[in-house]
Design a protein that fits this description.
The protein is of the alpha/beta class. Helices cover 38% and strands 12% of the residues. It has 15 helices and 13 strands. The strands form three sheets. Strands 4-10-9-8-7-5-6 form a seven-stranded mixed β-sheet, with helices on both faces. It has a four-stranded mixed β-sheet with strand order 1-2-3-13. A two-stranded antiparallel ribbon has the order 11-12. α13 runs parallel beside α15. Belongs to the class-III pyridoxal-phosphate-dependent aminotransferase family.
Length: 460
């Protein structure tokens, strides 16, 4: 932060952000347009409202600067206001953004995407990930004639639509009949998945999952001897199960797309799904998502076939030219500048630093960094080694006071080594307080308010 680095966390106040949060709640249900951005996810009265951002830094309305992680819920992987992206967007803004017929930019963007993700043969763009995953589910149901959807139980989010949200604690307003059509399988367990497919023989339209988990290393429950990389073996096993049981295999690459490789996890592990969905990093903060897949399935949502039509995706704003220009600029930047490798290098430096800092303060078993280097998350565990929202609150509070806004440790390529080193220093200071709370077996004195809350919960 510009002037707040030495301020005591107990004196860290955000009066303008607090007032802005009240304004937000007065006119927007939840005070934000994404539940994961809600002020309930931050310590009480310490939820900064953002004024602007540049690169890996953001400024709140109180004038404080932060090093930011998890930018835009993992969508801004190149950093805010990236010059190549904003330049591409500006070029299109002066040419009009939406027409009564397709723009030539739509063809260019589709060709660029399919060149970047060569495992797909056709692509259709939309504005958000939920529309893309729901379109994949609808298409799978149409081509198989089956009603059920099998989702990976170990992955936290697939869609805002009823077929998925009905399975969460926030299922109010969703008919039970809809929820009953969604079943779940565990990541990494082929035997359990085959049992599910057998139990609902001829009923499951698709298997949908993130192809790699956010909490690597791979679960130890994978049955059978490994022939090589365990993730590759598992995904190849799923591919075989889907083929044998006649269902569609869908990879949700919203997170893994670009962060695992430019072609997503499917490009890294070499296992080709029938359909896949991309978003987040694809637009570097601009609204664009994609449903991609094999021509045989995707064309069912088109005009050049003789079968029953599928209402795949049809959105007024799905192909706005400036968002597609942003996506093309992102793909070019990733390939030309080796962004994925940079994300991994930055993440490895951060993970090593945080682990050393935690160990040095005696909390290495309680502040735990997990995940692929390009997609790091952290767990805050109590004195019994159990996940704790109270200890998370303590940790977040100290990070914020030190100028680090980090609901996760997901890096952007705009971070510098100096940013990482400052983050590690702040983490070390936070861990010193964490140790005091563990010794007292009670973090309450260091919370200064209610603990942060999980996104998915039944009651507000």
């Amino acid at each position: 932060m510009d002037t707040e680095d030495t301020r005591n966390a107990g004196e860290f106040l955000l009066p303008r952000s607090r007032a802005a949060n009240e304004r937000l709640h007065a006119v927007i249900p939840g005070g934000a347009h994404t539940y994961a951005k809600g002020d309930d996810q931050y310590p009480e009265n310490l939820a900064p409202v953002i004024s602007h951002g540049r690169g890996a830094h953001v400024w709140d309305v109180d004038g404080n600067r932060y090093i930011e992680y998890g930018s835009g819920l993992r969508s801004v992987s190149l950093g805010h206001a990236h010059p190549r992206v904003t330049e591409a967007v500006r070029r299109e803004l002066d040419r009009g953004s939406n027409f009564v017929r397709p723009s030539i930019v739509e063809a260019e963007a589709a060709e660029r995407f399919l060149a970047t993700v060569p495992t797909a043969e056709m692509v259709k763009f939309a504005k958000n990930g939920s529309d893309a995953t729901t379109a994949a589910v609808r298409l799978a149901r149409a081509v198989t004639g089956r009603p059920r959807v099998a989702v990976c139980a170990d992955h936290p989010f697939f869609s805002v639509d009823d077929w998925f949200i009905g399975t969460t604690p926030m299922s109010a307003g969703i008919p039970a009949a809809t929820t009953e059509l969604t079943v779940a399988f565990p990541y990494g367990d082929l035997a359990a998945t085959e049992e599910l497919l057998t139990r609902y023989a001829g009923e499951i339209a698709c298997l949908i999952l993130e192809p790699a988990t956010h909490t690597e290393p791979f679960p130890s429950s994978q049955p059978g001897p490994s022939r090589g990389d365990p993730t590759t073996d598992y995904l190849a096993g799923l591919r075989e199960l889907a083929d044998r049981h006649g269902c569609v295999l869908v990879f949700d690459e919203m997170i893994t797309g670009f962060r695992w490789s430019e072609a997503g996890a499917q490009g890294l592990y070499g296992v080709v799904p029938d359909l896949s969905t991309f978003g987040k990093a694809l637009g570097n903060g601009f609204a664009v998502s994609a449903l991609a897949g094999c021509r045989e399935l995707m064309e069912r949502g088109g005009l050049r076939h003789s079968g029953e039509r599928v209402f795949l995706l049809s959105t007024t704003h799905g192909a706005e030219t400036h968002s597609l220009a942003a996506a093309m600029a992102v793909q070019t930047t990733y390939v030309e500048e080796g962004v994925t490798a940079r994300l991994h290098a930055l993440g490895e430096r951060l993970a090593a630093g945080v682990r050393d800092a935690a160990a040095g303060m005696g909390v290495g078993d309680h502040v735990v960094v997990r995940g692929r280097a390009s997609n790091l998350v952290f767990a805050t565990l109590d004195e019994n080694g159990q996940p704790s929202q109270q200890y998370r609150t303590l940790f977040l509070r100290r990070l914020l006071a030190g100028g680090v806004l980090a609901p996760s440790f997901v890096v952007s390529s705009a971070l510098t080594e100096a940013d990482i080193d400052h983050t590690v220093e702040v983490v070390s200071q936070a861990c010193a307080v964490y140790r005091k709370a563990l010794d007292a077996a009670d973090p309450t004195p260091w919370l200064d308010g209610r603990p942060v809350k999980p996104v998915f919960r039944r009651l507000a």
